[in-house]
Write a structure and sequence with these properties.
Elements (H helix, E strand, L loop, with lengths): L30 E2 L8 E3 L7 E5 L2 E8 L4 E8 L4 E18 H7 L9 E13 L4 E8 L6 E10 L10 E5 L2 E4 L2 E9 L1 E14 L15 E14 L4 E13 L5 E9 L12 E2 L3 E5 L3 E10 L7 E11 L5 E8 L6 E8 L3 E8 L12 E6 L6 E17 L6 E4 L2 E5 L6 E3 L1 E7 L2 E6 L6 E4 L1 E8 L4 E8 L3 E5 L3 E5 L3 E10 L3 E3 L3 E5 L4 E16 L10 E4 L3 E5 L3 E5 L2 E12 L4 E5 L3 E5 L4 E23 L2 E11 L3 E4 L2 E5 L2 E5 L2 E4 L4 E4 L3 E2 L1 H28 L1
Parallel strand pairs: 1-26, 25-28, 32-39, 39-46, 46-52
Antiparallel strand pairs: 2-12, 3-4, 4-9, 5-8, 6-7, 6-8, 6-9, 10-24, 10-27, 11-12, 12-23, 13-20, 13-25, 14-15, 14-23, 14-24, 15-16, 16-19, 17-22, 18-19, 20-21, 21-22, 25-26, 25-30, 27-31, 29-30, 32-33, 34-38, 35-36, 36-37, 36-39, 39-40, 41-45, 42-43, 43-44, 43-46, 46-47, 48-51, 49-50, 50-53
Length: about 700
């Protein structure tokens, strides 16, 4: 969900934090490092992800609203009283003020009747009640985007000052990551708040909205506020709100450190000196709220700039009791543990937690390092202020080997009663901000959670996972994904990072520096199978990208040698596994590869036939003595029988029928035809014989 740009103070996408270069006051044994995302447990925002408190004639908190959801607050008000509201939201919401009858219609779906209505993201004002009765203030998300809403509503008999907030750094277990909400929780044994006051002049006004004020007082506080979770041996979960606070007199530099422990397990939870031991004591406020407190004045008085770190640690003793240690340290100093507290409740675990779910009494389960009024729900006004804050937690639980800035930074606190006017927060880095005098502007400042979106077109998926900055991820996609074996497949082409940067290797190692998208670019390929008896196109077969054009080119005649040759006839092109798709009789053709194809090259085989005869013969009706020519395989040649008279002899050849199935070199064999020769010469021999006999006889007679 995209959030309004005017409500977010987001860091640029490619911040690289030089954590080790920060002016961090802490135990030298710690290494400052952003943790991997598995240190955090991802959760989901629900209707229960709201922190709401109600005190006397006042209600406030942070609520999560999805489109169509609303939050109602009902109360009794007298005629002439004022209903004050102060609402800030990450997206547009609507405020309704309704009487009992109108509220009944509202919950039935009729929103046309109301006493007062306003829509916006930052609304401050009041409504004067005209008639005593029951009234409802409803905050409704009527838009298309989910909202986080910070609100306060109060009832007063007279105009009251504008509501203010404690300002600084707060982690509520909710981050705005690339325009969407990311909810998480984590546990730790230690929080550290670094404070440097460069200049400060504060003064309490004549009145505060809470009703408590010391007009003209120059004191203010810097508070490290965290929540300890105790899982008791009896199976219960208890919440304790821990305050490690610096009180600072901006006029003369007097400094006190003070700790408070409150029982947040339920609205009416109590503390007792019998179960809580430390340097301080438990006392009650208005006989209904119990708090443990201990305070120490620091000497000498502070001179500016003044730097101090507040350290809160928790754990479980060897006898199974939760303990809390409150400490402070100066630059290059060691920690002074000024109060060590034991809560005598048998437990199985005790730790501090940040979670988007509320504590037992409905207040935030958060961590805050904020500047506010000094004490007793008092407010103050920043006349001149420049205070640097850094909020860190130890990880991983329970070994606590490293320190990290809190993962998300909102610029306002919510669980403390003290507030400050005219204080503006300026982001420096993750978990680091300056509180300056200037107009208050509630906002989300930063997070080191970053989204990695992997888009895979093959399964039409777009999966977003959350990492922390500087995390290294490895993507190793298969080089090929088979669609139909030996017919079609997808080939990994490259990875496209954030739509611009291309990586062609199969394995991608990426250090995340900001919101990142990876598009896995596959190329569709088809198999081209070529069956070519000549072997000329055999190397042309294989995988081709869809859309490729393949040129087929064969000679019209291809001589195989040894009296054999091929005559090109056609390309028979088949869609693989189907009937004939195309027949091309041209010896050059182009195929656009948009399917798997099989190409069969059709050739006609011819053989060289040589027939030699000493005398003319008739071959298929043609008289010749020498025949040299190419003939198709299976073609028939008939050499007719013949007789010739040569050199006084008759010579004959019997004829020959030839089926051409290979190269042939034939000599026609002639032989003496004795019959013809004898028959031809017999009359002559007889005549010669008769003449010879006649001459001989006549010679004897004479």
């Amino acid at each position: 969900m995209e959030l309004p740009s005017n409500s977010l103070g987001l860091l640029p996408l490619l911040i690289i934090i030089a954590l080790l270069g920060m002016a961090l006051i802490t135990d030298a044994s710690y290494v400052v490092e952003v943790p991997p995302v598995n240190v955090f447990n991802e959760t989901h925002l629900t209707v229960n992800s709201s922190f709401v408190y109600t005190y006397a004639n006042m209600s406030g908190g942070i609520i999560y609203l999805r489109p169509g959801w609303y939050y109602p607050y009902g109360f009794n008000a007298s005629a002439g009283s004022y209903i004050y509201y102060n609402i800030w939201s990450t997206s547009m919401v609507t405020l309704y003020i309704l009487n009992g009858q109108e509220y009944g219609k509202f919950i039935s779906g009729n929103v046309s009747e109301y006493l007062y209505s306003m829509t916006g993201t930052d609304m401050v004002g009041y409504y004067q009640v005209r008639k005593s009765g029951t009234y409802y203030v409803v905050i409704s998300d009527n838009g298309l985007e989910s909202s986080l809403v910070l609100f306060t509503i109060s009832i007063s008999g007279s105009p009251t000052p504008k509501w203010a907030f404690p300002m600084g750094i707060a982690d509520y277990g909710i981050a705005v990551v690339n325009g969407t909400y990311f909810a998480y929780d984590y546990i730790t044994n230690e929080f550290i708040g670094n404070v440097t006051i460069y200049k400060a002049l504060t003064q309490e006004p004549s009145a505060c909205l809470s009703g408590y004020a010391e007009p003209g007082s120059n004191w203010f506080s810097v508070q490290l506020n965290t929540v300890m979770v105790v899982n008791t041996a009896g199976g219960q979960t208890q919440y304790y709100w821990l305050q490690n606070v610096v009180w600072f007199d901006s006029l003369n530099g007097t400094v006190w450190v003070v700790d408070n422990v409150w029982n947040f397990s339920s609205i009416n939870s109590v503390l007792s000196n019998a179960t809580v031991s430390g340097n301080g004591v438990v006392y009650s406020l208005n006989n209904s709220i119990y708090v443990y407190e201990y305070l120490v004045e620091l000497t000498p008085k502070a001179s500016l700039p003044f730097s101090i770190s507040l350290v809160t640690r928790t754990g479980l003793s060897s006898n199974g009791y939760p303990w809390i240690s409150f400490g402070y340290l100066y630059t290059n100093g060691s920690i002074t543990w000024y109060d060590n507290i034991t809560i005598k409740v048998p437990a199985v675990s005790a730790y501090m937690e940040v979670s988007p779910m509320p504590t037992g009494n409905g207040l935030p389960d958060d961590a805050e390092l904020i500047v506010a009024g000094p004490w007793n729900w008092e407010c103050t006004t920043a006349k001149s202020l420049n205070t640097s804050l850094m909020l860190y937690f130890a990880w991983p639980y329970p070994s606590d080997e490293y320190l990290s800035p809190v993962p998300a930074t909102w610029d306002f606190g919510e669980d403390t009663g003290e507030t400050i006017y005219n204080a503006h927060v300026s982001l420096i880095n993750y978990g680091e901000a300056d509180v300056l005098n200037g107009p208050e502007e509630l906002s989300f400042l930063s997070t080191y959670f970053i989204p990695l979106t992997i888009i895979n077109p093959l399964n039409e998926s777009s999966i977003t996972n959350i990492y922390t900055i500087n995390s290294t991820v490895t993507i190793n996609e298969p080089m090929t994904v088979t669609v139909v074996p030996n017919e079609s497949r997808y080939l990994l082409a490259d990875y496209v990072i954030n739509g611009t940067y291309t990586i062609t290797s199969r394995t991608l190692h990426l250090v995340l520096q900001g919101p990142t998208s990876i598009y896995i670019n596959y190329t569709l390929q088809y198999m081209l199978t070529i069956e070519d008896p000549s072997g000329l196109l055999s190397g042309l077969g294989g995988w081709y990208d869809s859309g490729d054009v393949v040129t087929l080119s064969e000679p019209l005649v291809y001589n195989l040698g040894n009296g054999t040759r091929l005559l090109f006839r056609s390309y028979d092109i088949y869609l693989t596994g189907t009937e004939l798709s195309n027949l091309v009789i041209n010896n050059t053709a182009r195929i656009s590869i948009n399917s798997p194809y099989t190409v069969i090259v059709n050739w006609t085989r011819q053989y060289l036939v040589i027939i030699h005869s000493k005398y003319p013969v008739s071959i298929n009706g043609t008289e010749t003595t020498n025949l040299t020519g190419w003939f198709y395989g299976g073609e028939e040649l008939a050499v007719a029988p013949a007789t010739v008279f040569s050199d006084g002899l008759f010579l004959s050849e019997p004829g020959l029928n030839i089926t051409v199935d290979k190269p042939l070199n034939v000599d026609v064999r002639w032989s003496i035809n004795y019959v013809f020769t004898v028959l031809t010469y017999l009359p002559l021999i007889i005549i010669i014989t008769i003449i010879t006999m006649y001459i001989t006889r006549k010679h004897h007679t004479t």
